[in-house]
Every structure is written in structure tokens, then in C-alpha cells.
């Protein structure tokens, strides 16, 4: 076989194999087999030494030409295959955006929080602002400034959890009243929502951690009629137009006169049922005219100003508003209970 034939054979063989190659790796194997250090064409180039000196340039040129030609063919085959592989990969990775997705489960506002927000919104719409205070409170604000000195028997009713003789978990949101009076001048019109704590046993209507929303209004000429008006607006906003509100005379050291305020039971509409212990009424808050002693202790001139205050039990309102049979459901975090409040959100 002549040298030319041999070279033609190498070229034709390679071009044929490149046509059949299915991946880039195969192309690289062919490259090594022909152009590599031990490749066929490299082998032929090495035989140049056995040629006559005058034959060498033409021979070398021919081999180099072929080498360039084959290199181009190999590169182009490699590129084509690479593109094909990429196209196949992209095709395999295609997302079908018409497949329905997995919906993340949405949380919902806890009924206690919605009740708290609804209460706060009602008073904010009447011009009140929101004030807050610490849950770990000083005896001074929780009791002393509210006319409950150390030996006062009314302290017993509050089942206080103490950290030390002067530091406690606030038993009501009323200390925020005292803090506000000490830091603001009248007119004052605030609501203070928050957590409160007492050493109570857990049952259907009690929990050691509960929530209240305090209210305080102080200005010149504020009367008990203003208190009744504010609470009547609150009750209708919360429970609807047909709810009835009743004031019962009561005692709190920080108000004089004081009242306990009931609304008609939502379960029996006032007829009497186990939820309202047969009375038709459920107590939702305590209220009264701020005791002038408290005003004076908190730096407000009781000769010039009067005020009213109230403390709403948020769990009580939530239980009524949503007709929940047992307050414990609000704290147990049973998803089956809570999901009922997430519908349509
Ligand atoms: N702090 C009282 C309690 O927790 C509730 C209360 C009664 C708050 C009368 C008031 C008030 O502001 O005027 O039992």
C-alpha cells in the first residue's frame, strides 16, 4: 500500500467513525488513537527518519495537512455531540408548569389573638391609643399604686405568683394604668392588652395564664355614663346588636364606685344553660370610676380630673364570641380545633 493510500484510509476511517460516534468521550478516544502520542498518524510521522532527506519536506507537509484536517473534523464532531447532549439534558429537565403545585398549609390567627385584636380595634376606633407594660411587674405598680397596700385583704383574691417580695407576674393589666398616669398628662384614653397570671387551677373557665385588655379614660368631667356608653359600644361591636349588658355593684380598691359587667350568654341567649350556670349572664369585665386616691398617687389632680377604667377578660369574650364550650380549648393547640378558625383565609 502506498503512503497516500494509507493516509486516505486513516482519513476515511476516522470520518466514518465520527459519523457513527454517539458521545463526546468516543470522539476523544478516536483523537487519541490517531493523533495521540502513540496514535496512528504520529506513528507514521516517526517513520520520516527513514526517508531520503529530499523527500522529507513534502512528506511532513502532507502529514501536517492531514493532521489539521482531522483535528478540525474531531473538533467539529465533539462540538456537535456536546450540543446534542446539552439539548437532551435540557429536554429531560423540562418542568411541566401545568402540573398543580403542592399548596403549603396556611396558618390562621388564633381565636384568642383575633378576639384581642377585635377588642383593641373597637376602642381604637373610638379614639383610644394602645399602651403596653411588662408581664414581670413590681408590687408597686401591680398593687401599691392601685390602692392595694401590702396588708390589704383584696390582695388575697389575686392569687399572685411572686418571684420575690417585690417582683411578681402581673395579676392584671391594671398596672399599665398606673404606669400611664405617671408618664402622661390628661386627657388620657388608652387600652392595654396583654398576658396576666394567677396561681389558679386549670378548669373549663380558669387558667393560670390568661389575657386581659385594660382601659383607662381620664379627663375633666368624665362620668359613669361615659363608662356605660363605652362598654355598651364595646359589647355591641363584639356580640351584635341584641346583646344585653348589665352592671352589678362590686368592689375594686382602685375604683369607686365599682361594677362587674355581664353580657347575655351567647349559647342560650339569656335563657340559662350550663355555660352560664343557669343565670343567662356571663361576666366579662370589671370596671368603675378611678378611685381619687389612685389618681393622686399617680400624680393626677383628683379635684380637677375624673376617669373610668375597665379590665376585660379576653378568654371570656373569645369563648362567648365563638361559642367555645371550654376555655381549655384555647390553650391546648389541637389543630382540629384551631383549623376551624382558618377557613376562607
Ligand atoms: N383588674 C381587675 C381584675 O383583674 C379588673 C378591673 C376591674 C380592671 C376594675 C379595672 C377596673 O381597670 O376598673 O380583676
Structural class: alpha+beta
Briefly note the CATH topology name of the largest domain.
BirA Bifunctional Protein, domain 2
Q: State the shape.
A: rod-shaped
Strand count: 10
What average pLDDT do the residues reach?
Answer: 91
Strand content: 15-25%
Can you write the helix and strand succession as a string? HHHHHEEHEEHEEHEEEHEHH
Q: Report low-confidence residues grouped into runs of 5 or more.
A: none
The H-level CATH homologous superfamily of the largest domain, spelled out, is: Bira Bifunctional Protein, Domain 2
Q: Let me know the largest β-sheet.
A: 7 strands, mixed
Cα Rg? 44 Å
Write up this protein.
A hairpin with a 2-residue loop joins strand 7 and strand 8 (255-264). The longest helix has 37 residues, at 56-92. It is rod-shaped and about 130 Å long. Helices cover 39% and strands 20% of the residues. It is built from eleven helices and ten strands. It has two domains: 3-93; 111-338, BirA Bifunctional Protein, domain 2 (2-Layer Sandwich). The protein is an alpha+beta fold and 345 residues long. The strands form two sheets. A seven-stranded mixed sheet has the order 1-5-6-10-9-8-7, with helices on both faces. Strands 2-4-3 form a three-stranded antiparallel sheet. It has helices at 3-20, 24-35, 40-46, 56-92, 111-124, 139-142, 175-183, 224-239, 292-297, 314-321, 335-338; strands at residues 129-130, 136-138, 162-164, 167-169, 188-197, 209-219, 245-252, 255-264, 281-290, 306-313.
